[in-house]
Write a structure and sequence with these properties.
Helix content: 10-25%
Number of helices: 1
Shape: elongated
Distance between the termini: 70 Å
Largest sheet: 2 strands, antiparallel
Strand content: 5-15%
Length: 58
């Protein structure tokens, strides 16, 4: 007798949890940044827009 499978059972990656999201404020422009990694305490973070604006273009 064949067993019935649950819907979605056996599919790879169907039950993976998303990593927790941490909200941080950019130290330059004040924009909210959402990152999957918890930032170290006391360290200022910069958003991608501010980082790209700081880099000199050749």
């Amino acid at each position: 007798m064949a067993r019935k499978r649950r819907p979605g059972a056996g599919k790879r990656g169907s039950y993976k949890k998303k990593p927790p999201q941490h909200k941080v404020i950019c130290c330059v422009c004040g924009q909210e940044i959402v990152t999957p990694v918890r930032p170290p305490a006391g360290q200022d973070l910069t958003c991608l827009d501010c980082v790209s604006a700081e880099k000199p273009t050749p």
